[in-house]
């Protein structure tokens, strides 16, 4: 107890009393109640806070906007919430060099609004951009439909600063797009769920905002027919930005395609699309269709699951069929959107026990074809399934990496793959 | 230097011989000479032996012997690297992947190709070209460099401005770790759960293990490609045009720039019919015809506004090949105007170009050494070519010093000491100009997870090798430690 009080005093001295507070029920994570919420104001302060954990063996949960805290397994322990809320500055928008350096706690919307003033964007469309932060989006590797054209966060991040549990602040990468000096730690931090270090700032390459854009939708009579369309479009000379297939219980599959180009380019591509899809007529639709996966999380009333799948592009129709059939067997309602990259999001609704069985069956099916299934939301009324599934023969290497960077298991203990 | 044979007893040599196919082991002094350096020829080390495995199992068998006997090893592709990444290490062996050169799988519906590491870069495109696909990373050496080497160096090329580097196009890897175990990183699908170890492995310059299978992404060829060539009075005007193109919201497939000295050398070598100007710009746009044509008009106007006095647009493939020929031959062309030259590779934020160029000119005047400049201008990657004559006493040292001064300018401008050639042996001492000690220690902690005994291409990349604190098995002093060249942490 004395040690805890001393530690709290130390934290208050480090970041200011007003930025250390007792954690409330709203700060609980995966059923575990942390003791404190600490909000450092600089990356140096954040690193110093972590240095304090080196001795007493405190478990730290890094937190950005808190929109995806449910992703990952519940932590084995949770003592402090380390919030990046106050690290919210855009440090440098080098617009003429198409790069931006930003602190981890800045929300995506704030960042995009600032970039848009110079006609630029970070070419990633994430969930809940008004609240999701740069650090959180990177740690969870969230990506949307723009990925088909611009790649994932791993392809856009060019520099990172990480605070390690021993208080080290380590930078890697740089501020230039092309750079091969040293190991690529920006990629390592992306998708690591904050288990190796806390991202304090990031540098991204940017893209110009499009000159014009048009979204179109068309329907196919069957999944087989849709698969043919997917392959024809992906094998064509179309330069589309995004392409997704959306489908739900007992409804025709719908394809949405996004073009970004000059006026002349848009007209030519829409004409080519028409030739590729034959009699099916593509209709212009509002851009809001690209945000559809956000709706998979609402409403959450207790008997739903949301999973992320990754399959080969040529197996999209087969995958949708497998999901439909398995869901039907277990009497579940379902809805999904799969991008042409093979990454998709699925919402399943129904009896919690059946949901659990369905996810297990689907995970096995995905695995058999080299794909994966990660659970982003699951009912609390039945025994929890592991979020991640099998990670293969690289597990010992992943554990060794964790031991090197976080030897005491301070950061997000137990939340990542296989208990890391 | 210790003679090779003396350092490893004949029993181990026989074990190596048994691990590979007949003629898969080279130990004769004459034949070993071929492997004593890579494309960076001023660093040379004779290896103990060279091994040429034919498959993954043979690579594992070799590496297990190295692990057991604590013999350092260096993997080698085609040996075209320009930073000494494949330079042998003393008392170590070279593992050449040249015989593992099969394209194992071509999957058009998923746009994936699985290759062995010794496959030549251009052969991937050649294989998928009939179906109008291509492999995007295009280093200048693409007709001879290997995919395994590209993975080690995270190779770029002129078109990475739009298409990204090797790392963007590598989805999965089969890797023999430095203890001989086999792991699979990434895969054919995206976002495989777990850490992005494929992302860390690509560009690690052979220090984390040996890739034995690589899953690549190939891309559909764009509907059309147009290349514009514009002649400017100097690189300043050409640089201003580049900035305006970017500011106008365009992302060309490539933007390349050459200065007058580089143009003269290229003309002398391959007669690309370049205008004799102070700054030459190549701008390549690709995509749907209607889009490219609309944007090309814009690029043309921007170049004219910035003082271009001659503009040509290559319409046919043949014209395009000729335009690129001069650029791609630029390094080798230096032989036409200077007996010796150093190829440097630095990166600056694009906006620092005029300032850095004038500093290079000042340094050139100060040292009396000519510097030709070839740039991937779109992404700020400079390739200054420092010209010198080895026969003049002291000039080689002066040229090396000048090339390092240029790198310091790049770092001071907020850039990098290497954009695509890698750190290797050549630039490891420059790493501390760009990274702080904690940054470098953190990277080496990552290395310790992969290679606790530091056997895989040790002594490269990092200025001060650090040994890993924790390692399995009995504690054995590392040879670097014994020699006082490294400390344990």
What's the short story on this structure?
Chain A is α+β, with helices and mostly antiparallel strands and 420 residues long. Chain A contains 12 helices and 19 strands.
Question: How would you characterize the overall build of this protein?
Answer:
The complex is a heterodimer of chains A (420) and B (489). Chain A has twelve helices and 19 strands. Helix content of chain A is 29%, strand content 24%. The mean pLDDT of chain A is 95. In chain A, the strands form four sheets. In chain A, strands 15-12-14-13-17-18-16-19 form an eight-stranded antiparallel beta sheet. Chain A has a five-stranded antiparallel beta sheet with strand order 5-6-10-8-9. Chain A has a four-stranded mixed beta sheet with strand order 1-2-4-3. Chain A is globular. The longest helix of chain A has 17 residues, at 352-368. Chain A has 420 residues and is α+β, with helices and mostly antiparallel strands. Chain A folds into four domains: 2-85 and 406-419, Uridine Diphospho-n-acetylenolpyruvylglucosamine Reductase, domain 2 (2-Layer Sandwich), CATH 3.30.43.10; 90-208, Uridine Diphospho-n-acetylenolpyruvylglucosamine Reductase, domain 3 (2-Layer Sandwich), CATH 3.30.465.10; 213-292, Alpha-Beta Plaits; 293-390, Alpha-Beta Plaits (2-Layer Sandwich), CATH 3.30.70. By secondary structure, chain B is of the alpha+beta class. Chain B has five domains: 4-96, Uridine Diphospho-n-acetylenolpyruvylglucosamine Reductase, domain 2, CATH 3.30.43; 103-220, Uridine Diphospho-n-acetylenolpyruvylglucosamine Reductase, domain 3 (2-Layer Sandwich), CATH 3.30.465; 224-332, 2-Layer Sandwich (Alpha-Beta Plaits); 338-426, 2-Layer Sandwich (Alpha-Beta Plaits); 429-488, no CATH class. Chain B contains 19 helices and 21 strands. In chain B, strands 12, 13, 14, 15, 16, 17, 18 and 19 form an eight-stranded antiparallel beta sheet that branches. In chain B, helix 2 runs antiparallel to helix 4 (56-69), helix 10 (235-247) packs across helix 12 (289-305) and helix 15 runs antiparallel to helix 16 (395-412). Chain B starts with a helix and ends with a strand. The model of chain B is unreliable at 1-6 and 470-476 (pLDDT under 50). The interface between A and B is large, with 86 and 92 residues.
């Amino acid at each position: 107890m004395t040690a805890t009080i001393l530690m709290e005093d130390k934290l208050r001295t480090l970041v200011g009393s007003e930025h250390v507070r007792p954690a409330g029920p709203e700060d609980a994570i995966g059923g575990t109640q942390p003791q404190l919420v600490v909000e450092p104001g600089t990356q140096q302060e954040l690193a110093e806070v972590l240095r304090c954990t080196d001795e007493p063996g405190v478990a730290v949960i890094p937190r950005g906007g808190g929109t995806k805290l449910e992703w990952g397994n519940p932590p084995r322990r949770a003592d402090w919430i380390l919030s990046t809320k106050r690290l919210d500055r855009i440090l440098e928008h080098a617009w003429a060099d198409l790069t931006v350096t930003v602190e981890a706690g800045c929300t995506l919307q704030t960042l995009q609004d600032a970039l848009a003033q110079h006609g630029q964007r970070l070419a990633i469309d994430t969930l809940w951009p008004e609240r999701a932060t740069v650090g959180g989006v990177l740690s969870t590797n969230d990506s949307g439909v723009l990925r088909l054209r611009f790649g994932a966060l791993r392809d856009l991040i060019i520099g990172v600063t990480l605070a390690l549990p021993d208080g080290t602040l380590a930078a890697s990468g740089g501020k230039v797009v092309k750079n091969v000096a040293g190991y690529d730690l920006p990629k390592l931090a992306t998708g690591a769920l904050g288990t190796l270090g806390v991202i304090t700032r990031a540098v991204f390459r940017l893209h110009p905002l499009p000159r014009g854009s048009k979204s179109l939708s068309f329907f196919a009579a069957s999944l087989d027919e849709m698969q043919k369309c997917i392959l024809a479009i992906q094998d064509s000379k179309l330069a589309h930005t995004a392409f997704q297939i959306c489908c739900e219980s007992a409804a025709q599959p719908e394809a949405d395609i996004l073009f970004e180009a000059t006026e002349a380019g848009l007209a030519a591509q829409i004409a080519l699309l028409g030739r590729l899809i034959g009699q099916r007529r593509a209709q212009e639709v509002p851009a809001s269709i690209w945000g559809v996966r956000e709706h998979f999380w609402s409403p959450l009333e207790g008997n739903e699951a949301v999973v992320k799948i990754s399959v080969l592009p040529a197996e999209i129709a087969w995958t949708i069929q497998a999901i439909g059939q398995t869901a039907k067997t277990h009497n579940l309602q379902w809805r999904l959107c799969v991008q042409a990259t093979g990454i998709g999001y699925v919402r399943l609704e129904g009896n919690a026990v059946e949901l659990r069985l369905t996810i297990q069956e689907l995970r096995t099916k995905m695995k058999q074809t080299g794909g994966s299934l990660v659970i982003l939301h699951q009912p609390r009324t039945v025994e929890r399934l592991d979020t991640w599934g099998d990670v293969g023969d690289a597990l010992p290497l992943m554990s060794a990496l964790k031991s090197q960077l976080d030897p005491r298991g301070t950061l997000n203990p137990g939340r990542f793959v296989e208990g890391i | 230097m210790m003679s090779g044979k003396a350092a490893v007893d004949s029993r181990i040599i026989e074990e190596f011989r048994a691990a590979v196919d007949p003629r898969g082991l080279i130990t004769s002094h004459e034949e070993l000479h071929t492997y004593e350096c890579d494309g960076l020829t001023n660093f040379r080390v004779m290896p103990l032996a060279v091994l040429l495995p034919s498959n993954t199992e043979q690579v594992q068998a070799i590496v297990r012997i190295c692990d057991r006997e604590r013999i350092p090893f260096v993997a080698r592709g085609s040996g075209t690297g320009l930073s000494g990444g494949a330079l042998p290490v003393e008392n170590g062996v070279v593992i050449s992947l040249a015989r593992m050169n099969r394209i194992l799988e071509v999957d058009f519906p998923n746009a994936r190709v699985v290759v062995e590491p010794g496959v030549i870069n251009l052969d991937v495109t050649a294989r998928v070209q009939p179906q109008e696909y291509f492999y995007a990373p295009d280093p200048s050496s693409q007709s001879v460099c290997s995919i395994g080497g590209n993975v080690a160096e995270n190779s770029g090329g002129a078109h990475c401005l739009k298409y990204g580097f090797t790392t963007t196009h590598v989805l999965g890897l089969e890797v023999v770790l430095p203890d001989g175990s086999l792991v699979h990183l990434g895969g054919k699908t995206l976002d495989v759960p777990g850490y992005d170890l494929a992302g860390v492995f690509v560009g690690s310059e052979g220090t984390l293990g040996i890739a034995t299978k690589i899953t690549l992404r190939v891309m559909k060829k764009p509907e059309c490609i147009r290349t514009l060539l514009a002649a400017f009075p100097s690189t300043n005007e050409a640089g201003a045009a580049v900035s305006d193109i970017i500011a106008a919201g365009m992302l060309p497939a490539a933007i390349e720039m050459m200065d007058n000295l580089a143009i003269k050398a290229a003309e002398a070598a391959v007669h690309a019919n370049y205008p004799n100007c102070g700054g030459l710009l190549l701008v390549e746009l690709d995509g749907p015809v209607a889009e490219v044509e609309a944007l090309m008009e814009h690029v043309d106007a921007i170049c004219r506004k910035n003082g271009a006095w001659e503009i040509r647009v290559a319409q046919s493939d043949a014209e395009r090949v000729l335009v690129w020929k001069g650029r791609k031959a630029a390094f080798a062309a230096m032989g036409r105007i200077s007996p010796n030259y150093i190829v440097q590779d630095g990166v600056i934020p694009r906006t620092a170009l005029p300032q850095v160029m004038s500093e290079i000119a000042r340094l050139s005047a100060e040292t009396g050494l000519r510097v030709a400049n070839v740039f991937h201008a779109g992404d700020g990657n400079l390739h200054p070519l420092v010209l010198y004559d080895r026969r003049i006493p002291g000039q080689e040292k002066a040229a090396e010093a000048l090339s390092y001064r240029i790198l310091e300018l790049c770092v001071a401008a907020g850039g990098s000491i290497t954009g695509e050639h890698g750190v290797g042996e050549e630039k490891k001492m420059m790493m501390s100009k760009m990274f702080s000690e904690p940054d470098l220690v953190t990277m080496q902690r990552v290395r310790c997870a992969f290679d606790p005994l530091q056997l895989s291409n040790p002594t490269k990349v990092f200025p001060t090798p650090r040994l890993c604190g924790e390692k399995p098995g009995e504690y054995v002093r590392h040879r670097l430690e014994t020699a006082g060249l490294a400390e344990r942490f």
